[in-house]
Design a protein that fits this description.
408 residues, alpha+beta, Transferase(Phosphotransferase), domain 1, five-stranded antiparallel beta sheet, three-stranded antiparallel beta sheet, globular, Prot_kinase_dom, ATP binding, kinase, Protein kinase domain-containing protein
């Protein structure tokens, strides 16, 4: 490597001298009184400040017996308290810092990372977006809504959000590619002629879960080898999803994007089925005035899950969530997606919403009710929860299927 500069040599020599002096000083305190130790501490502090060398202080402390030890002790105690306070402040500052450990997943407009925060293993959802426009329908508006909703919700079947933070970043068009800035349509936004734009990044620090409900289906934890569902586990999970939805609707919150990838699974060995389901991703959620019958101009949702009234008229109500839940229940029970990919394009699955002949008639009837084109004919979240609870109780004595969730 490059040779050390004169200043680095001087610092290195000084550090070595300091170490030798400290060793000599500490060696002389083997049988020292508390006053002498206090005096020595003050000398070390003075040496750190450059007021005296440890070699000089060590020799003086051995030869001088007339030091004002109470004063030295008081000053040393004051110094130690100051150092302790500073250390606590540093610890507090470090505690809030995220230690990123890896990536858990990536979406169109967001990324989920695994991290440690305040001693907890957490998931960090990050989303970058431009500041263009204003209002609740802009990327910034939706991010603010998501952050506010996430931190206000407290329920065992809704993913816990511990903290959120917006960071403002100035970037050029060239840097925009690195930030993966997204526009209102969820597409990557290109820079405009190299001009600097104001971009933001949202950090949501949330509890760490093992996988999504979609991931659970891929792991085959809901079905036997013959393809039939393990009804105790399927119904238990659906009851939990319904429970989270009941809580949302009690707060006049419409989820707006209920689907298998927006339900997280977390291992919980206290439960018979070994895990708990939690609603997540409130990026398309909306709060509805309880005096209104619906929200208008709502053009959001995931194709093949979204209710027909949203697609056709832009109207959304809590019943719209129940349609999406009906699609989700069908997908989990029959282990199929509501869409297929043909020639590179997504199309509705011809099998949807049919059930095999052996399907549980109670679940079939519930799904059919939820998929009613008329929103007024759909059951409420509370009614669905009661219905599913009855189905779960009826099969509670059956053995759950293995395997369970793998380690996170």
């Amino acid at each position: 490597g490059a040779p050390a500069s004169d200043s680095s040599k001087s610092t290195s020599t000084g550090n070595l001298s300091c170490i030798k002096g400290a060793q000599a000083l500490m060696g002389s305190l083997a049988n020292a009184s508390s006053d002498q130790v206090a005096h020595a501490l003050l000398i070390v502090a003075a040496s750190c400040a450059g007021a005296v060398t440890l070699e000089e202080s060590g020799s003086k402390s051995q030869s001088s017996g007339s030091a004002d030890t109470p004063t030295h002790r008081q000053r040393a105690e004051k110094l130690l308290k100051a150092v302790q306070t500073q250390a606590e402040q540093l610890d507090a500052g470090q505690a809030d810092k995220l230690l990123i450990k890896g990536e858990l997943g990536t979406g169109i407009s967001s990324k989920v990372l695994r991290a440690t925060w305040r001693g907890l293993e957490v998931a960090v959802k990050t989303m970058a977006f431009t500041s263009s426009g204003s209002g609740p329908e802009t990327p910034l508006g939706r991010a603010v809504t998501e952050a506010a909703l996430c931190t206000s919700l407290n329920h065992p079947n809704i993913v816990a959000t511990y903290h959120y933070e917006f960071k403002r970043m100035e970037t050029s068009a060239a840097e925009g590619e690195q930030l993966a800035v997204v526009d209102a349509a969820g597409q990557k936004a290109d820079g405009q002629g190299g001009k600097a734009t104001t971009d933001y990044k949202l950090f949501l620090i949330q509890e760490l879960c093992h996988t999504t409900l979609d991931g659970g289906l891929l792991l085959k934890i809901y079905h036997h080898a013959d393809g039939k569902p393990c009804e105790p586990r399927v119904f238990a999970t659906l009851v939990e999803v319904a429970s989270g939805l009941v809580h949302l609707h009690s707060k006049n919150i419409i989820h707006g994007d209920l689907k298998t990838v927006n339900v997280l699974l977390k291992a919980d060995l206290r439960l018979t089925h070994g895990m708990v389901a939690k609603l997540a991703d409130f990026g398309l959620s909306a709060v509805m005035d309880p005096t209104r019958t619906h929200l208008s101009n709502y053009k959001r949702g995931t194709p093949f899950y979204v209710a027909p009234e949203v697609v056709e008229a832009g109207k959304v109500t809590p019943a719209s969530d129940l349609y999406s839940f009906g699609v989700l229940m069908w997908a989990v029970y029959v282990d199929k997606l509501p869409y297929v990919k043909v020639d590179g394009r997504f199309k509705g699955n011809p099998a949807f919403p049919n059930f095999p002949a052996w399907a549980n008639p109670g679940l079939v009837a519930l799904v059919q009710r939820c998929l009613s084109r008329d929103p007024s004919l759909r059951p409420t979240a509370h009614q669905v929860h009661q219905w599913l609870t009855a189905l779960a109780d009826a099969v509670a004595d059956e053995e759950p299927v293995a395997p369970g969730l793998p380690p996170v």
